[in-house]
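hiii, so i know i said id send this last week but things got crazy w the move. better late than never?? heres the sequnce for the chain we talked about at the cafe, plus the structure i predicted for it. fair warning i was half asleep when i ran it
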Amino acid sequence: MDCRSNKLLDLWIFIICILDMTNGGFQSTLNENFTRSTAIDEYQTASTTVTQTSIIPKISVTSNATNYEILSDDRSGFSLTQATIISEPYFDSQTPKNVTGLVGKSAFLNCRVKNLGNKTVSWIRHRDIHILTVGSYTYTSDQRFQATHHKETDDWTLQIKWAQKRDSGVYECQVSTQPVHSYFVNLNVVVPTAAIHGAPDLHFDKGSTINLTCTIKFSPEPPAYIFWYHLDEVISYDSLRGGVSVITEKGDITISSLLIQNADLADSGRYSCSPSNADVASVRVHVLNVRALISGGEHPEAMQTSSCQLQYQRDHYIKMTSLMIIVFLYNHIMWLTAIATKLYSFCYRHSSHLCTGLFIKLKS
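okay and structure toks below
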């Protein structure tokens, strides 16, 4: 092959290479465009599918305080679910269920309602199923009852003015849901009592220390003050007599002790303990001159008091002794009767001659 033929061959080979590269380049571009177009179509299809079908995860709510209601709504051609959570009213379980009130004072019953919304709170007395209040309105004709709403704490407080013993019982705090929700509070109206140990009479020796102890019970709160009286006059702790003091311990049971040193006959008489929240308790104090009594020179009133005390002790001793004798005789009579009954039964079952001989010996 000559030089011209070689050049032509090289030219054809070059043209073929160029064409092959050119065709491959177009094919690569077409393939890339086709791939991009396919991906876009698939993305749009997937987006349309996701848009048309919304996948809503299940809602699981756990709460000790709130009740929830799940609502669903299908308002379009798509499978669309809308979940809505609505909270209902509920009571605060930490609110006291037992309340103690004082006679003549105001008693307060609390009911704490959360998420009340547009519902209404009513107080009902269980004793006669009587509606007392509806909201803040007093429904009963007894104007001692009044309901108050404290917005900052969600408390609905029922106030009972001038509480009486008959006001004790169960009260229901009711919310107007369907069905109704109720919270029960028990009210105990108490009458505080005061008592002096050793009443009604106490005896002290002249020159000793008079110690009177007054106890106040059944009071939800300690008394604000306690006054001591002697012969209806308030005892002054800074009097010229001196030696008078009071020790008071306040608590669930309040104890007040009156101490009078170097007791004299003039300290005799009636002493009274008067707390601020209880009735008056009294005791009669007798100061005796024991030495003069022994020598026969006691004051007539003191001697009369002492003789009355001795007479009481003597009568009590006679009564107790008589009772013991009666019990002793009764037990022995019953024992002898049982023995006689058994003996008669034994003789009757075995031989009448044996019983006859036994009774003859007993007579002899």
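btw The longest strand covers residues 181-190. thought thatd interest u
miss u guys!!
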